Amino acid sequence: MSDRHTVRDNISPARPRQPHPDGGGGTSWSLASIRALDWRSFEALSGEMFRRMGYWAAETGEGPDGGIDLLLRRGRKIWVAQCKRWRSRQVGSGEIRELLGVVAARQAEGGFFVASGRYTRPAWIFGRQNGLELIDGRRLLELVSHLEIPHYPAEGPRCPRCGARMAVRAVRGGERAGTEFWGCVRFPACRGSRTL
Ligand SMILES: [Zn+2]
């Protein structure tokens, strides 16, 4: 995954936060507000972040213990992602080693670790040596600055384009008006659909 390094190198220093012009509706995250999220919301926000980065992303629902939090795809390649919003402690190399183990077990292209806090120096070094992408709180703020927590249904098929859920929709007009189909819940951001 060669573009990963480009993304990292292009990070700009933290911008001053701009109040949203209409005083509402816009999302303005702080590290404190991200850390206050429950794990499911944090996972959902992280999933949305990866979709905006161009990945097909699905929450695995494997929970906070064991397993992985997000499965990512681009073409035929897959990545795995862990999402942790620990309040106080730094992520150590042990967690990054575990991620590497999951990457190997799933024969993934690589792995991401998303944390609302910081990593220890050994964690950074181990991650870099093994081609894993570590996203810390500061970078996370940059990446989610304009995102809101999506409230997607827990059921329904996955969108073939982005990995979010699909819901039953009906064609609005034309010859097929009223015909029902599966449409991506992220419409209009995503126009993925499937026949019912
Ligand atoms: Zn979609």
Describe the structure.
By secondary structure, the chain is of the alpha/beta class. It has 2 domains: 3-10 and 26-144, Trna Endonuclease, Chain: A, domain 1 (3-Layer(aba) Sandwich); 152-196, no CATH class. Helix content is 29%, strand content 20%. The chain contains 6 helices and 8 strands; from the N terminus they run αααβββαβαβαβββ. A hairpin with a 2-residue loop joins strand 2 (70-74) and strand 3 (77-84). Mean pLDDT is 85; it is low at 1-25. The structure holds zinc ion (ZN). Residues 159, 161-162, 164, 184, 186, 190, 192 line the site of zinc ion. Zinc ion binds at residues 159, 161-162, 164, 184, 186, 190, 192.
What keyword list fits this structure?
disordered N terminus, 196 residues, single chain, 3-stranded antiparallel beta sheet, alpha/beta
Give helix and strand order, one letter per element, not per position. HHHEEEHEHEHEEE
Overall morphology? elongated
* Helicity level: 25-40%
- What would the average pLDDT be, to the nearest integer? 85
Number of domains: 2
- State the end-to-end CA separation: 35 Å
Q: How does the helix and strand content classify structurally?
A: alpha/beta
**Rg, please?**
18 Å
Count the DSSP helices.
6
CATH topological fold name of the largest domain: Trna Endonuclease, Chain: A, domain 1
E-strand count: 8
Poorly predicted runs: 1-25
Strand proportion: 15-25%
The CATH class assignment of the largest domain is: Alpha Beta
CATH architectural grouping of the largest domain: 3-Layer(aba) Sandwich
Could you say which small molecules are bound to this protein? zinc ion
Major sheet description:
5 strands, mixed
**Quaternary structure classification:** single chain
